[in-house]
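WP5 quarterly update. Target: Ribulose-phosphate 3-epimerase. Source organism: Aciduliprofundum boonei. Length: 215 aa.
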Amino acid sequence: MVKVSPSILSADFSRLCDEIKFCEKGGADMLHLDIMDGHFVPNITFGPVVIKSIRKCTKLPFDAHLMIERPDKFVKDFVNAGSDIITVHREIKISIKNVLRKIHNYGAEAGIAINPETPFEKVKEHLEDVEYLLIMSVHPGFAGQSFIEDTLEKIKEARKYIDEEGLEVQIAVDGGVKHHNAKRIVDAGADILVAASAIFNGNVESNIKKMKAIK
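Structure tokens (predicted):
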């Protein structure tokens, strides 16, 4: 069964704990936390303080997706706030290998994300050092964008490589994931669907159950 990771960026921040409880009832497997610094992407969201405040609301794993220029400076803060997975971008200008090592040293699982314009080839050498590959199917920064169809080929390429190499890496897809395209994304090889508006617009519980029922 496909895993579903609701992105709380589209949740009602005035009642985050309630929204998270709805996610639990729907069978969410983890929560996706979009962290933006206004530099790496043209938006600012939230940081460790918010994560720490909602950590008490649930035992679901937290995936902190760090869309920031210097994730190395903040890994400890996000882990201490309650993040179980730290996902960083291949496109950062510092050593990705050192950041991934730091994530593991602090006891969290590591993910590596690639933007739509970044070829899969760019992350191959790092896949032995991560538990997750996050393939962005929109340009990161804002919720509500349309799925970039070319992403399907990248997912297929990643799936083939990971399976052939026998790697223990789960493929997550983030951006424009809706009920109408979720099956194609899963068929291409995704293990985890990251969805924002498709989950939080309407009945959260039923939206998640519908997405998890995709085969």
